[in-house]
Amino acid sequence: MVTFLAGGTGTPKLLAGADDVFWPAATTVVANTGDDIELGGHLVCPDLDTVLFLDGEVLDRETWWGIADDTAETHSELTRLADAAGLDGGPRYLPDDAQTEGRSIARWRRFSGVAEFMHIGDRDRAVHVTRTSLLDEGQSLTAVTRTLADAFGLDRTLLPMSDDPVASIIHTPSGPMHFQEWWVGRNGVPPVEDVEFRGAERASATDAVLTALDDTVVIGPSNPVTSLGPMLAIDEFEQALHETTVVAVSPFIEDTVFSGPAADLMAGVGLEPSTGGVAEAYPFADAFVLDDDDSTLLDVPVVRTDTTLDDAADAERVNRAVETALSEVA
């Protein structure tokens, strides 16, 4: 049994070649929910959905977001209507008092759907409508995710990190903003001054997640700040990682990041944007998988390989390295 911690595109790219190394039926994926937002009244869970669409064999592998060949008629019409009405597309937050009203799972991250700033495909939207409707019927996010996983035919078990709201808030010279506003709405500007995981002090890991963390844990090459940070901000979650075997794949080659905003975010929270900084962020890691060209010296066992993840063959190679690292610390 093995549990992957997933956020962004790094760990999903690793999962794309994991089946021949880690049996899917014996694999659990715990996904970050700090990136979730409520958009136009619908709860969007990007990191859950990337794994859902990947294992459901419908993921857009060009963007690693949304459903391949999806139409976007509703999204286009929302933009057209806003233009015709002279409405600013935003990102448009709902009023402050609305941020903590309604379904609790969406607290601190409620956006208007006017000319929605995040591209949502039509089939993709159907998932969000279904998820939100089941939540409104009284189900937990864990239960709803299980239902959606069954609908997409997943063999792996997919879990949200918590049924409680944790929102990744980026603090900048222009004020605080949700991660999705900073990354999607503003293309990663202005500079990061700090990152807050709002709600983490009151959130808890579910029994299902804590059970999954009893197994061996693999952290793929995801962003350690906003992909893993919301999980680690939940005390019992991080404590569980100190009590199990953990292997992590660095998203860096020394001080060069493969993709995404990890370097800016790490620098913003006082971590060196490098493999060394990743190791500092993961003090519970028992071993690391690093790229062949990464000469970083760590105090734990290291297995090196080509950590490029351009296709399934690449991903299988890196999973084999993870398997080797696990055998060294098991």
CATH superfamily, please? Answer: CofD-like domains
* Low-confidence blocks of residues: none
Strand fraction equals: 15-25%
CATH architectural label: 3-Layer(aba) Sandwich
Pairing-aware structural class of the strands and helices?
alpha/beta
Kindly state the number of beta strands: 15
Question: What is the fold's blueprint, element by element?
Answer:
Layout: E1 2-6, H1 10-15, E2 27-31, E3 37-39, E4 42-44, H2 46-55, H3 73-85, E5 110-111, H4 122-136, H5 141-151, E6 157-160, E7 167-172, E8 175-178, H6 179-185, E9 194-198, H7 207-212, E10 216-219, H8 229-232, H9 235-242, E11 246-249, E12 252-253, E13 256-257, H10 262-268, H11 275-281, E14 287-291, E15 302-305, H12 312-329
Parallel strand pairs: 1-2, 1-10, 2-6, 3-5, 10-11, 11-14, 14-15
Antiparallel strand pairs: 3-4, 7-8, 7-9, 12-13
Catalytic activity: (2S)-lactyl-2-diphospho-5'-guanosine + 7,8-didemethyl-8-hydroxy-5-deazariboflavin = oxidized coenzyme F420-0 + GMP + H(+)
EC number: 2.7.8.28
Subunit structure: Homodimer.
Can you walk through the features of this model?
It is a single chain. The protein has 330 residues and is an alpha/beta fold. The chain has one domain (1-327): Rossmann fold (3-Layer(aba) Sandwich), CATH 3.40.50.10680. Helix content is 34%, strand content 18%. The protein is built from twelve helices and 15 strands. It has helices at residues 10-15, 46-55, 73-85, 122-136, 141-151, 179-185, 207-212, 229-232, 235-242, 262-268, 275-281, 312-329; strands spanning 2-6, 27-31, 37-39, 42-44, 110-111, 157-160, 167-172, 175-178, 194-198, 216-219, 246-249, 252-253, 256-257, 287-291, 302-305. The strands form four sheets. It has a seven-stranded parallel sheet. Strands 4-3-5 form a three-stranded mixed sheet. The chain has a three-stranded antiparallel sheet with strand order 8-7-9. Helix 4 (122-136) crosses helix 5 (141-151). The longest helix is centred in the last third of the chain and has 18 residues, at 312-329. It is globular. The two termini are 13 Å apart. The mean pLDDT is 97.
